[in-house]
Amino acid sequence: MNVDKDTLNKLLSSLKSYNPTANTFSEAVAKVVLPVAIIIVGIMWYMDFVDVKKQLTSSDANMGFEFWIQSSMKYVIGIMLITFSPMLIDAVMYISSVIGHLINSVSLQGGHGSVSIPEITKKAHGWEKFVIGWLQSVGRIGLWTNQIIAKLLIFLRFLMLYVMKAVAPIMIASYVSDEFKSVAIGYIKQFTALIIQGFVLLLILKIYPVLINNDIFNVAASGDVAQNLAAMFLVIAKAFVIAATLIGSQVLTRRWMGV
């Protein structure tokens, strides 16, 4: 499994650099739904005003200037967040990219970011050589599959980020309503989970080759035929483990965020 620079660069890229066309489309959709989001906030503002007015009328209280400021503040802030929501998402993505590059810059002793299947060592004849060679092929397929899974997960992560950027104004508009605030909170948690998933994927892709190179292949390079067989089985087993870990990265981060 080779963690090539292109894979890491895509994982650490911004929405604009990953796919400019998709990013432009998401921003265009966000602009289209922005008036709808503002109208939603306006309706909620009016409904809140009517309810408060009824309560104050029944209690013979007056609505002063200070009351208007306090009751209107959250709606004004809501409109501002809705208006700048795409830029806020870009800012968060930029910060996460900077953090990701800092993590990627940390050197790992004994690891070079790639895994290669070890060659047959010592004496192996007949069926032994055939079985080890077959296991080597299965191991290479497993590592290649993990590369594909990693690339697909990065693609899926950015796909969801583009969707979330497009619908950001509508989702954030629900935050000003006490009844629908949970929708906005769920949206924010989902977005945060996708951001954290990028860090988790980066850590997996960086640590996995080090664990393999310092463990399995040292045994295979110095052992007899039985140890070679054991090493190949470990390669296949760990390939399945890393595949499950990569696929489960989104579930893990969603669980962390309580989504």
User: Roughly what fraction of the amino acids lie in strands?
Assistant: under 5%
Number of discrete domains: 1
The overall pLDDT average reads 80
What is the β-strand count?
0
- Principal-axis shape: elongated
Portion of residues in helices?
over 70%
The residue ranges in which pLDDT falls below 50 over 5 or more consecutive positions are none
**C-alpha Rg, in Å?**
27 Å
- Counting helices, strands and paired strands, the structural category is mainly alpha
Major sheet characteristics: none
H/E element sequence: HHHHHHHHHH
Helices, by number, come to 10
Distance between the first and last residues' Cα: 31 Å
Organism: Weissella muntiaci
Protein name: Conjugal transfer protein TrbL
Keywords: Membrane, Transmembrane, Transmembrane helix
Transmembrane segments: 28-47, 75-95, 154-176, 188-208, 228-247
Please provide a written account of the structure.
Keywords: Membrane, Transmembrane, Transmembrane helix. The model has no long low-confidence stretch (mean pLDDT 80). The protein is an all-alpha fold. The longest helix has 42 residues, at 181-222. It has one domain. The protein is elongated, with a radius of gyration of 27 Å. It is 81% helix and 0% strand. It contains 10 helices and no strands. It starts with a helix and ends with a helix.
Summarize the structure.
The chain contains ten helices and no strands.
Features:
259 residues; mainly alpha; 10 helices
Layout: helices, strands, pairs:
Elements: H1 5-12, H2 15-18, H3 20-58, H4 65-83, H5 85-104, H6 127-166, H7 168-173, H8 181-222, H9 225-247, H10 249-256
